Amino acid sequence: MKEIYQKIWELAKPYYEKGRPMDIDHIEWMIEDALLVCQKENLEDSLLLPLVILHDVGYAEVPKDNPYNLDLRKAHMEAGAKIAKKILEKVDYPANKVEKIVYYVSVHDNWALGDKSVYENNPILAVFSELDFIWMATPKGFAALMEMLNKNKQEMFEYVRSRPEEEKILFSTKTTKRLYESYLNGRKKELN
C-alpha cells in the first residue's frame, strides 16, 4: 500500500475504533481487495483507496444503533464526509481529489436510500459499492452480519446469496464478480 494511503488509514483508524465493532476488519479487507481490483482492472487507486479507507468513519460520530436504519445511514455519510475532508486535508491530498472523495463518502450508501444513479457511469463508485457489498460474503463479514442480523449460517447464506438480484448488483468488472463468487462459494462449503 502506498505511503499516502497508510497515512490516511492511520488517521482514520481512531474513528473506526469508536465506530462499529466490525469496521476495522471491514476496511482492512476492503483495502486489500480494492488494490487487487485496481491492479487487475487497471483502475486509478487515487480515488478508490481513500474512499475505501474513509467511507464508514462517520459511524464514530452517530448513535450506536442498527446500521440498516436509514436515518443512521444518512447521518454516518454526512459525518463521514466532514471527517474525510479533515483527514485528506491533513495529509495534503490533492484538492481536486479531496472534493470528489468527500462527495463519494457523502453518497456511498445511496443505494440503500433508493438512489442508484450516483453509481451509474462512475467506475470508482460502482467498484466501491460492489466491494462494500462483497464484504457480506467474506468470512469475517459473514460472521459479523450473521450476529448483527441474528441469523444462523444457512439463513445468512441465503440472505447474502439473494442480495445481488434483490439489489440489482450487476458487477461492473470481472474481478469483482469473481471475488463475490469465490467468497460465496467459500461460505457454501462451510455449510456442508
Keywords:
192 residues, mainly alpha
Q: Please compute the radius of gyration using only Cα atoms.
A: 16 Å
Percentage beta strand: under 5%
How many angstroms separate the termini?
36 Å
Mean pLDDT, to the nearest integer, reads: 92
Question: Would you give an account of this structure?
Answer:
This protein is mainly α and 192 residues long. 70% of the residues lie in helices and 0% in strands. The chain has helices at 3-18, 23-41, 45-54, 70-90, 95-107, 123-134, 139-149, 153-167, 174-191. The radius of gyration is 16 Å and the shape is globular. The mean pLDDT is 92.
Please give a quick description of this structure:
With 192 residues, the chain is mainly alpha-helical. It has 9 helices and no strands. The chain is globular.
Blueprint (SSEs and pairs):
Blueprint: H1 3-18, H2 23-41, H3 45-54, H4 70-90, H5 95-107, H6 123-134, H7 139-149, H8 153-167, H9 174-191
